[in-house]
C-alpha cells in the first residue's frame, strides 16, 4: 500500500533511472496531455511530496502523479518488455537510452508548470520525509480540530503528509489509544509523541522494502495490528479487530487491539 515511505522509494528509483538524461520517449496516455511532446528534454529530478510524485523536466514542466491505491511505476531496461500489467493500463511512459519507466493505473497524471506545483501539492502539511519537515507545525495542524477522530486526523494530508492506512492503525496502537478517540481527548504529550513516532517510522522504513513497525523478529510479525484481524495482539494477546470503511465520512479500514487501545470503537453492522 503506497504511503510516504513507499513513494520515497519510488521517487528514488525513478530519479536514479531517469534524472539527468534526455528523454528519447515520452508518452502520456491521458486525453488532455496526449499530444504533449517531451522528447529531447532532460528530466531533471524526481521528487516525492507526501504521497505525490513530481518529475521535473527541462523547460519548466513537471509531471505530477499520484498512485492512490492501485497505481505503480515500473522501470525496465530500454527495449525490455514491461511486465507491470496489461498494456492498456499504462498511462505514462518516460524513457531514455538506457531505462524506461512505465506508469500503470495512475489515477492522477497531469503536466503542469513547475512554477505552479503549489496548485497540486501546496495544500499538504509538513512532509514527514521532506526537507520542510516541521514537527511543531504538524502537531499544531493535527490538533486544530479537537473533535476530529484521531484516525481521520492522521490520514488528512493537510495535517502531515505521508501517512496512509497502515501507519494510521500502527500509530494509534503505539500510542495506546483508540483510532476513534477525538484528538482533543488525547493526553497532553500524546500528539507530540505521535508526530515524532510517525517521523521515526517513515525515516526507518524508507530505506527498506519491507515495512516494519515492530521490534520482534518472529516470522509474520512486521506490524502490530494492520492486517492481523483475529490474531493475538503481540503485546497483550487479545484478538485484533478490524472495522471497514464507512462511505462518505473520510474513514477507512482500521485495525486495533480493543485491550491495548481503550476508548470509543466502531464495528461494522
From TrEMBL:
InterPro entries, sorted: FPG_cat, FPG_N, H2TH_FPG, Nei2_N, Ribosomal_uS13-like_H2TH, Znf_DNA_glyclase/AP_lyase
Record bears the keyword Transmembrane: no
Region described as Disordered: spans on this chain: 203-222
Domain Formamidopyrimidine-DNA glycosylase catalytic: 2-103
UniProt-listed Enzyme Commission number(s): 4.2.99.18
Database matches in SMART domains: Fapy_DNA_glyco (SM00898), H2TH (SM01232)
Biased composition (Basic and acidic residues): 203-213
Protein name: DNA-(apurinic or apyrimidinic site) lyase
Organism: Streptomyces wedmorensis
Amino acid at each position: 500500500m503506497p504511503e510516504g515511505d513507499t513513494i520515497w522509494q519510488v521517487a528514488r528509483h525513478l530519479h536514479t533511472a531517469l534524472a539527468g538524461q534526455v528523454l528519447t520517449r515520452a508518452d502520456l496516455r491521458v486525453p488532455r496531455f496526449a499530444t504533449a511532446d517531451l522528447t529531447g528534454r532532460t528530466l531533471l529530478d524526481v521528487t516525492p511530496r507526501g504521497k505525490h510524485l513530481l518529475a521535473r523536466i527541462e523547460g519548466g514542466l513537471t509531471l505530477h502523479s499520484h498512485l492512490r491505491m492501485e497505481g505503480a511505476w515500473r522501470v525496465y531496461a530500454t527495449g525490455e518488455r514491461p511486465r507491470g500489467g496489461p498494456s492498456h493500463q499504462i498511462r505514462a511512459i518516460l524513457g531514455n537510452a538506457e531505462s524506461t519507466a512505465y506508469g500503470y493505473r495512475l489515477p492522477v497524471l497531469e503536466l503542469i508548470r513547475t512554477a505552479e506545483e503549489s496548485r497540486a501539492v501546496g495544500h499538504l502539511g509538513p512532509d514527514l520525509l521532506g526537507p520542510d519537515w516541521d514537527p511543531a507545525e504538524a502537531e499544531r495542524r493535527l490538533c486544530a480540530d479537537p473533535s476530529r477522530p484521531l484516525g481521520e486526523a492522521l490520514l488528512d494530508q493537510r495535517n502531515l503528509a505521508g501517512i496512509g492506512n497502515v501507519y494510521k492503525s500502527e500509530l494509534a496502537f503505539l500510542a495506546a489509544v483508540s483510532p476513534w478517540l477525538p484528538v482533543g481527548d488525547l493526553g497532553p504529550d500524546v500528539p507530540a509523541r505521535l508526530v515524532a513516532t510517525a517521523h521515526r517510522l517513515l525515516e526507518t522504513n524508507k530505506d527498506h522494502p519491507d515495512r516494519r513497525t515492530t521490534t520482534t523478529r518472529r516470522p509474520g510479525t512486521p506490524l502490530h495490528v494492520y492486517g492481523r484481524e483475529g490474531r493475538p495482539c503481540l503485546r497483550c494477546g487479545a484478538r485484533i479487530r478490524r472495522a471497514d470503511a464507512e462511505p462518505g465520512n473520510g474513514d477507512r479500514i482500521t485495525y486495533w487491539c480493543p485491550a491495548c487501545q481503550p476508548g470509543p470503537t466502531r464495528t461494522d453492522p
